[in-house]
Design a protein that fits this description.
The structure is a homodimer of 364-residue chains.
Chain A: H1 24-31, H2 36-46, H3 65-76, H4 81-106, E1 110-111, E2 114-115, H5 117-121, H6 123-144, H7 149-175, H8 186-211, H9 216-243, H10 245-248, H11 256-259, H12 264-270, H13 275-286, H14 291-303, H15 306-326, H16 333-346, H17 348-352
Antiparallel strand pairs in A: 1-2
Helix pairs in contact in A: 3-4, 3-8, 3-16, 4-6, 4-8, 6-7, 7-8, 8-9, 9-15, 12-13, 12-14, 12-15, 13-14, 15-16
Chain lengths: 364, 364
């Protein structure tokens, strides 16, 4: 069967060192305008410190993908790194604000292999920290972003409204039936994923260039590149939700399968018109009580062609992202770095090899 | 004893009709850019509809104090109502965003005499709604606020950072001891209240004028007027937390007394150097197991002079608020309305009469 195989062989999705330009100091400067207790919670969440602010060298830091995109987009648009930095800070703050709130919304107790912030510090402080980071992101842009800062804030706030809409629809889609006239169309799912996941990467790719006053055409292209990468990202996350390490490591409770999540591979399988798809739908409608049922569901989805189709969709959007970025100019270091980063992030190795080498953590 | 007496004789804190200029349509326009399910939750929270979007005429709407302040401040600065409106919308959205999150943080299950949003729709959707309203507020200013919108966003985001800091400190103060070198100084409490409560009213009073390009001096004065009103507001809330209807109506669980909240009257009583203050501290240190203990605590605080002192502090800041507003120009309708609104909000009747006629709900 395809869902077993080796454990992950180490992270394949780390950002290349050259793109990790955002310093801890820059983030701390931004969050330092909040309260010391919130700053300490943020440092714990980021993997810098233990829960008491103590050094914590073994903790895994996040990938800093979004700041890296902000710097690469700025570079491609000829905007200096210094000009782009407040944008990189803002998207990283917003991303972590949403992670902290998402973990609570989803009941996820673990983040980056440690107890999630709300588990350690309580639900109230975690809600507050997410809200504070949101305000910090806007404040950082207006305080340090220069004369194009208002445009960058508008980019950010428009994205955040799409993100909220996407999350609300995601909750609504999970309640819809697997079959019949009220089921979820693939197009609806893609629109939700574009709002929920891709919008933030599109904003990240453009915000540094926006602060440098890049042309509307350049900004649109950067948004497109980021959004295509975001869709590829989401589809890889969807693959992980069915065939990824959460099952291999026994974390069934967080699996898309047990949560009734409507994801691309499951919708594709159920809608395939195959016997395997029909049997999968019956299984999903009944609910998946144990690991055997989940293994059966994953096998049925694979045989219905959904795994291959989802991998194709991820590769397709990766290619569109790289093509959009390349259209900005001649071959350059930024372009090479974007190709490397985007390929690593969605785990091309994983998509090409069998057994797969999945990224170590989820795509978000 | 002073804590019994008649039940409240009806709301004394409703905004005068002339200041309720913010229409449901304007708020719905702003929130309409989110998802339909979030809009429905918002309408429930605002008291417009039942939980399924059904008409709900008996529900109490909020006081719309902050939008009223935005319009009055604009009026005093000679800024047209239309120009101020996006600011009124933004502060009302932010206020409700914080209410929705606060109810979850505090475990409060009732809001405006109905089950709180998170009780009806779940914690996840409530977190999401709060986040969405925050983004909507910024978006509304940038989309509809005209050329001074970036300054208004900066006012808003700076205030939100103070608010987060104030809330974090409020949580921290509750954990500090009642006596000894680590206890809470009155000045610390006031600084926390200025951040947590007064900052939003200061922002509300200035934001409409800010959108009209009012002078820095005018804006500073409006911020001061709003912040003094906010402090008065908080101190009335503190009075209610010890002697108000929550005890009369048996809602002990939400009382400041049982939550160990450090509030102005309790800190004043404990720090008074009187025997009653010492006995109150002993009671508070042991915790208040039942209603009798709470009644004793309230009586001790009263005898230690804390009730009268807190009432004086509230009146003092009310007077400073009205004086600041009056300094903006000659007697005017806006000035009369500000006096009427601010007096009603902190319940002058309540402060003058005995037994007290408290506002029907909390000051927030």
């Amino acid at each position: 069967m395809t869902t077993s195989g080796s454990p992950p062989h180490g992270p394949v999705n780390a950002a290349p060192p050259s793109t990790r330009l955002l310093t801890q100091a820059a983030l701390r400067e931004a969050v330092g305008h909040l309260d010391a207790s919130l700053e300490r919670m943020f440092g714990y969440h980021m993997g810098w410190w233990g829960e008491r602010g103590d050094p914590c060298p073994e903790a895994a830091e996040g990938k800093a993908l979004r700041p890296a995109l902000a710097f690469l987009g700025a570079d491609a648009a000829g905007v200096p790194t210094d000009t782009a930095e407040p944008g990189a800070v803002a998207v990283e703050l917003i991303h972590n604000s949403t992670l902290i709130h998402d973990d609570m919304m989803d009941g996820d107790t673990v983040r980056r292999n440690r107890p999630a912030v709300w588990q350690v510090f309580g639900a109230g402080p975690a809600i507050l920290l997410g809200d504070g980071l949101h305000a910090c992101a806007v404040d950082t842009l207006l305080r340090r972003g220069g004369r194009h800062a208002p445009d960058a804030v508008r980019l950010l706030s428009g994205m955040l409204m799409r993100l909220a809409r996407g999350q609300a629809r995601d909750l609504a889609l999970a309640r819809r039936p697997w079959r019949g006239p009220k089921t979820v169309a693939i197009a609806e799912y893609r629109a939700m994923a574009a709002d929920k996941t891709a919008s933030l990467l599109g904003c990240a790719a453009a915000i540094g260039a926006q602060l440098g006053g890049a042309s509307p055409t350049t900004l649109r292209t950067l948004v497109q590149a980021g959004e295509h990468l975001g869709l590829a990202f989401q589809f890889v996350d969807d693959l992980l939700g069915v065939w990824g390490p959460p099952r291999a490591t026994g974390k069934e409770s967080s699996s898309d399968l047990t949560r009734g999540q409507k994801t691309l591979p499951l919708l594709t399988a159920v809608g395939s018109g195959t016997d395997d798809g029909t049997r999968l739908a019956e299984l999903l409608e009944r609910g998946l009580p144990d690991r055997d049922a989940m293994t059966s569901a994953a096998e049925l989805a694979d045989r219905a062609g959904a795994r291959a189709a989802t991998e194709r969709a991820a590769r397709h959007h990766l290619a569109l992202a790289q093509r959009a970025f390349a259209s900005l100019g001649p071959p350059s270091e930024a372009r090479d770095a974007f190709d490397e980063l985007s390929t690593a992030v969605i785990g091309r190795t994983a998509l090409a090899a069998d057994p797969p080498r999945w990224p170590e953590d989820g795509a978000r």
